[in-house]
Structures are given as structure tokens and as C-alpha cells.
Specification:
Layout (H helix, E strand, L loop, with lengths): L18 H8 L1 H4 L2 E5 L2 E5 L1 H9 L5 E5 L20 E6 L3 E6 H18 L3 H5 L9 H10 L3 H9 L1
Helix pairs in contact: 4-6, 4-7
Length: 158
């Protein structure tokens, strides 16, 4: 690993790094991309495919959603995988999240609906501004979920 690698504290103790982890850490494209890890294989995702995977994450997967692509935000999450009940997500800023599948599906659908109506991601992350409250029901729904780390991850996926 590079001398510039700053996520050493996030690595778990031990003397070895698995091949997949080493690949993810050493190749900057994984830090700068959204991806899904399933059965030791990493697939880089465009936004369309990312939303598709977020709607129904494969069992045994980990989904990574980057923000600025400056950090190895996924290092702490590499030990988590999705189950039939929970989806394993990792946001670059939020770290590992285990989200009930029904909740995740609801958040993805709400984010897509809100983005279509409001035409900007800022409303999803910071709340509706005065002129957007013409969509009162939608703005109220956003207010309820705005503090949820999974919501922030999903909002960046749009």
C-alpha cells in the first residue's frame, strides 16, 4: 500500500489483506466509482445500474456509493454483506449501513419521485425551499427521512 494511504486505522488487525480488498484499496478507480461487490467480484456501476441494484441488492453483496472519491470509505464495510432481510450499503462519508430491504426500497422510490418533481438533489439533502412546498406531501416525506444516513447515500446515487 502507498505511503499516502490514510485508512490504516480502518483496517482490521492482522498481517494479511485478501486479494479483493487489496484490489479495491490499490486501484483508485474503486475509490472514485460506485460499485457492487458480490462473491468476490466487483462491478463498477453507472447511476442507472446503481439505482437498479439499490432497489434489490443481491444476497451476499456490498454496495458502495462514493461522494467525492477522495477516501477509501469502503474499508470499514468490507466485512458486511446483504442478507435476505438487510441490505449492506456503504457511503464514502457514512460508512457501513445495514438497511432493512423494505426500508431501502421505500427510500429509493421516494428519492426518485422527489428528484423527478423537484429537479434538484439539494432538496433531498437539505430540505425543500419555499417554492418547492407546492409539493407539500413530498416535502413532508423528505423531512421525515432527511437525517437518515441511508437517505444521504441514496440521494447521492441519483
Amino acid at each position: 500500500m502507498s505511503e499516502n494511504f490514510t485508512a490504516y486505522p480502518d483496517l482490521f488487525s492482522g498481517m494479511l489483506v485478501c486479494e479483493v480488498c487489496a484490489q479495491l484499496i490499490e486501484d483508485a478507480k474503486y475509490r472514485r466509482s460506485h460499485w457492487v461487490l458480490v462473491d468476490g467480484k466487483v462491478e463498477i456501476l453507472d447511476k442507472g445500474k446503481l439505482l437498479e441494484v439499490l432497489r434489490d441488492p443481491p444476497v451476499g453483496s456490498l454496495i458502495y456509493v462514493r461522494s467525492g472519491g477522495r477516501r477509501h470509505g469502503f474499508v470499514r464495510a468490507l466485512r458486511y454483506v446483504s442478507t435476505r432481510s438487510y441490505a449492506a450499503l456503504c457511503g464514502e462519508d457514512e460508512g457501513p449501513l445495514l438497511v432493512p430491504r423494505g426500508r431501502l426500497r421505500y427510500l429509493v422510490e421516494l428519492a426518485e419521485r422527489a428528484y423527478r418533481a423537484l429537479k434538484r438533489r439539494g432538496a433531498l439533502l437539505n430540505g425543500c425551499d419555499a417554492k418547492e412546498w407546492v409539493h407539500e406531501d413530498l416535502c413532508r416525506e423528505i423531512e421525515v427521512v432527511r437525517g437518515d444516513p441511508a437517505w444521504r447515500v441514496i440521494s447521492r446515487a441519483l
